[in-house]
TrEMBL record:
A family per Pfam: AAA_14
Species: Corynebacterium jeddahense
Residues covered by the AAA domain: 23-151
Protein name according to UniProt: AAA domain-containing protein
Listed InterPro entries: AAA_14 (IPR041682), P-loop_NTPase (IPR027417)
Amino acid sequence: MDRIIERPRYFSRIQPFIDKPLVKVLTGVRRCGKSTILQQLQEVIRAGSADPQVFAMNFESADGLHITDAAALLRRIEAENLNKNTRAYFFFDEIQQVADWEKAINAIRVDYDADIYVTGSNSRMLSGDLTTHLAGRYVEFLIQPFSFAEFVELHRQSDRTLSEHFQHFVQFGGFPALKYFNLDREPSLDYLDSVYNSVVLKDVIEYHQIRDVDIFHRIVGYCFANIGKTFSAQSLVRFFKSEGRTVSVDTVLNYLEFCVNAFLIALCQVVVNGFGC
């Protein structure tokens, strides 16, 4: 049986918004633990109310795959015959799979006495679309993979020292599913490669309809090879030129932004002479 790692740093921020008239949006890279937190929130609500109305759906599950647009989602909810005048709790996991999902969320908010929770893996889609349709009516929480403390708790039953745990954490990171591979190098790296490919394919290449996939992979590879170093879009353009490839500064900037939006990379603010840049 899987052991659930408590994540109080997120619950302490989310709990004050339970039963408040704001859509709770959990964003973060795929497989970082958003679904588990969503399940834990359901358990908290079920434990705190007598027979609450709860509607939950994971759009990557067999039940959710056939729901591809807002109209289909609303029909599915209507079929539940929920009492619209009694508080109902809605949990939608990986909702970006549903076209025009934000319109469905807004309709649910208007038509039901609703407390709504959603997760998604693309910050541009969630922030941009929500700003358009739910301006001022949502609050966003960024979920990260496990911290080092959470990583140690996950693997505390092993006989590794704290120093060994730290070396593995630096090497593999904090994705929860790494527990299934006992931190063995080859299967752990294979799993991380599959997560990377999933993020790149679903949340970047498909979502943004990128045509020059080779250039995109080269840009990401350059970023990964230069972690901890400062570089500019112009320096990337010069790098590709030295390899006989032509790419514009705008293309580099767009691709980097797509990666940031998919939580594949993150920007670090550099302070120079007291000014952030």
